[in-house]
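User: tokens in, sequence out, please.
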């Protein structure tokens, strides 16, 4: 795909689909009640926009929640914006153009947008968090970076973790360039590192911190993103039992949360050779791992 200059990223030309074309596309789409995406990081080389574009072309939600870090405003100045990133933006705008509510929850990589919280235009609104009753439970949807920031961890240690993550991401990108040239499937180095014991322990602490904050505010469920690790756990906080969910990301796990007919599921899309044929798989949360024990969560 050719890269587009930033000034053309949100425009429509001969190579890009018009909003009306996306709305009227003949592809059969699954109807669901709610779709939650987080950590897309549009504007970075790590974003799997082709896979996300394929997923969005096959679903029609009644409501969309973008749970933070959809645009990576920290990296946007580097001028990287391929055509696939534009298609993702246009598909989301196509939902809004159909009258589907789109809530953009701000995250730490797009935190400058928090200055404009509660701005609304048409079906799109900008918020810091969402409070809703879903499936009979009082639910809080928030990106989660503020909760991690409040965890008792030295700033220097968080900084080292951030630098290590970006170093691994760069190494993974270079390794996959080589693997692609020799016909090998891409590797997911960062995702593999997150399955290591130390990383799982940090993820577990984060999830439990989220549950404690949710319980202290009277919620029964909390849905976050931020850590790029889709999961569901029931966490006991005193007398409260908190339902914790994470929608994952479109950098490592290529996952989205779906809520339909009272049930939650996580959707994953594989690494495609052609985006239109990318396999999409539904996973029940019974197949996801509890990072404390590496046993399936019911």
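Assistant: Sequence out:
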């Amino acid at each position: 795909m050719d890269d587009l200059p930033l000034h053309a990223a949100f425009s429509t030309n001969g190579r890009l689909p018009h909003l009306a074309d996306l709305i009227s596309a003949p592809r059969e789409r699954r109807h669901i009640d709610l779709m939650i995406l987080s950590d897309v990081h549009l504007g970075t080389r790590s974003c799997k926009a082709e896979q996300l574009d394929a997923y969005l072309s096959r679903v029609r939600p009644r409501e969309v929640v973008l749970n933070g870090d959809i645009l990576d405003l920290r990296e946007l100045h580097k001028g990287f914006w391929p055509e696939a990133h534009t298609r993702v933006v246009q598909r989301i705008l196509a939902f809004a153009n159909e009258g589907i509510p789109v809530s953009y929850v701000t995250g730490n990589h797009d935190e400058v947008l928090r200055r404009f919280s509660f701005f609304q235009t048409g079906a799109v609104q900008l918020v810091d968090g969402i409070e809703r009753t879903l499936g009979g439970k009082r639910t809080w949807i928030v990106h989660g970076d503020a909760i991690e920031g409040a965890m008792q961890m030295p700033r220097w240690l968080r900084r080292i973790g951030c630098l290590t993550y970006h170093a691994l991401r760069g190494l993974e990108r270079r390794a996959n360039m080589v693997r692609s040239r020799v016909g090998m499937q891409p590797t997911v180095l960062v995702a593999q590192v997150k399955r290591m014991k130390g990383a799982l322990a940090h993820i577990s602490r984060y999830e439990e911190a989220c549950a404690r904050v949710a319980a202290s505010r009277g919620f029964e469920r909390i849905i976050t993103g931020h850590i790029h690790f889709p999961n569901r756990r029931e966490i006991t906080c005193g007398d409260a039992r908190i339902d914790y969910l994470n929608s994952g990301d479109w950098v490592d796990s290529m996952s989205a949360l779906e809520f339909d007919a009272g049930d939650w599921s996580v959707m994953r899309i594989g690494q495609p050779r052609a985006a239109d044929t990318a396999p999409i798989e539904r996973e029940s949360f019974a197949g996801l791992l509890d990072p404390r024990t590496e046993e399936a969560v019911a």
